[in-house]
Amino acid sequence: MMINTHSPFIFVANNLAIDFVNTCVQKNGAPFELLNSEMDFLSWAHQAGFSLSVEVPEVDLQRSYQFRQALKTLFTAKADHQPLPSKALELLNSYLKNAPIQQQLVQTSHQLSLQPLNSVLSFDQLLGDIAYRASQVLVSSAKQPIRKCASDQCILLFLDISKAKKRRWCSMEICGNRAKAATFYQTGKAQQENTQQ
After folding, report:
1. Total structural domains in the chain?
2. Is 193 a domain residue?
3. Which H helix or E strand runs over 105?
4. pTM of the model
5. Residues 119-158: pLDDT tens digits?
6. Is the dihedral of CA 169, 177, 22, 31 positive or negative?
7. How many whole angstroms separate alpha carbon 178 and alpha carbon 81?
8. Could you give the maximum distance between any two Cα atoms of the chain, in Å?
């Protein structure tokens, strides 16, 4: 879970494809876009840990918005235990063909990790990598369910990797503490009203 107070981007979903969907948040009851420019997109990609080619073609924000919406549709259907919409699945598959899935084992300080063979990605490969991560979530079992934040004021999704599978909030720092504070306030208010009667 990564929340950077100097960045508008939130990495709380336990999956970068879901974090990509979470680049459209809710602010004052309405959707709020975090990817407003090519630089925003590149900044998100960098913070997500992607290395992009110097020759990255101009980021096509409209394509990334359409892809993000298709992913949200698929993740929401999966979270609601509904069939995956065929048009959104078709769009995911069109990006999946660009996924840089060739891997290599890399050893760093007594640890082995599986990393992409080609770690420097083009724009299409980046979307392909996101499509690959999304497809892994979609084919996974209910052991790691996709959930919606329990807050009415939040539209973020996350992969619940907790042992008990009872995670409710996108993040305790964002929505969990806000909910606790609201509950504490309402409890205190009710107690005060009861003592005045």
Report:
1. 1
2. no
3. strand 103-108
4. 0.81
5. 788 899 999 999 999 999 999 877 789 999 998 889 999 9
6. positive
7. 28
8. 71
